Amino acid sequence: MNYSALKVFFQGLSGNKGWKPMWREPEPKEEYDILIVGGGGHGLSTAYYLAKEFQEKKIAVLEKGWIGSGNIGRNTTIIRSNYLLKGNQPFYELSMKLWENLEQDFNYNAMISQRGIMNLFHNDPQRDAYTRRGNSMMISGAGAVMLNEKEVRRVAPFLDFDNARFPIKGALCQTRGGTVRHDAVAWGYARGADRLGVDIIQNCPVLNILVENDKCIGVETAKGTIKAKKIAICVAGSSSQVMNMAGLKLPIESHVLQAFVTEGLKPVLPGVITFGAGHFYVSQSDKGGLVFGGDIDGYNSYAQRGNLPTVEDVCEGGMAIMPMIGRSKLLRMWGGIMDMSMDGSPFIDKTKIEGLFFNGGWCYGGFKATPASGFCFAHLLSKGEPHETALEFRLDRFQRGAVIDEKGQGAQPNLH
């Protein structure tokens, strides 16, 4: 079923009785060409682009829970491509371009809102660093604008510009950045992939990865053994656990990243704002709630919940730049399990086991990378070679001394 304004109108007249399920509930087949483990944003986008752009057939996605139960539904919805290094900037700019046409592409309202993102700076060295970053963005076509204090005051007069410790001197702005409804992304990709013949199998945890003679031949699941020519793993915070089933160790740690939303308020934020002297980022949802987050919790965990000291730290960052946030009531909070790589950058690569591929290590950047991650992973699975924008995301880069150290914030708590 295609969606349109006309369809909504006529369904309203008929009591909304004609809507069909967004995707099927198939039973798994005995064998597939490509089997994707992980039904989050990255797994679903991979399946979608495999079927749509690379015309692959016999694809299945295995999800241990329900669609939208993982990190894709547990993030702060921000999209941006304001990166510096050549290993990152072209990739995230590809993702931004895919975001900009995504709703028309899969015929689903993901509530993409390019309201802009401002990264505040508080001293001259930071201004110079942001100028360099902005130049890198301009070279890649991402676009960047440096705002002085007066210009930031005009856009966000409620900020604490005269804070004695963190005076706001200006901001690096990407007007194409913004927010997207996170779970709608999962639903849109799932619906799009299903329409192209992909089997989406929910409540089907993988229990073991079958390897014979250094070749991956399939997986054991709660619904039986499923064979496949290629196995693609993209399970975010569970990456180390799943890859350990194949005897592989990853340079990844799992940490909790908390997110928060306040009660509904009148429109106040012009877009996304980030604190330059700490780790705090905030936007306002269409319902009026302020959606914000900060650092990971400083210990390893597989729990989708966080601790109180991190809550206090994040709120301190918010109070430092916009004291008025202290008057709002915290409505709810949640935690996602982050697959933190040692240099803060991801992996999209084949493994030393034939037929086994890995996508993970996204740290803080997983949601904004969803379209490009899926597209590049699909390219790797179909062509056998990495996409030109993901050439640096190799599993062996630490051995080669080719780290992509964008901010020096991987899984090390002392850097947060």
Quick structural gist:
This protein is an alpha/beta fold and 416 residues long.
Which labels suit this protein?
eight-stranded mixed sheet, about 425 residues, alpha/beta, about 25% helix
Structure description:
It is built from eleven helices and 18 strands. Strands 1, 2, 8, 9, 10, 11, 17 and 18 form an eight-stranded mixed sheet that branches. Strands 5-6-4-13-14-15-12-16 form an eight-stranded mixed sheet. The radius of gyration is 21 Å and the shape is globular. Helix 2 runs parallel beside helix 7, helix 2 crosses helix 10 and helix 3 crosses helix 10. The relative contact order is 0.18. Strand 13 and strand 14 form a beta hairpin. With 416 residues, it is α/β, with parallel strands linked by helices.
Order of helices and strands: HEHEEHHEHEHEEHEEEEHEEEEHEEEHH
| Proportion of helical residues | 25-40%
- Give unreliable regions as ranges: none
Average pLDDT = 94
Number of helices: 11
Instruction: Specify the oligomeric state.
Output: single chain
Distance between the termini: 46 Å
Structural class: alpha/beta
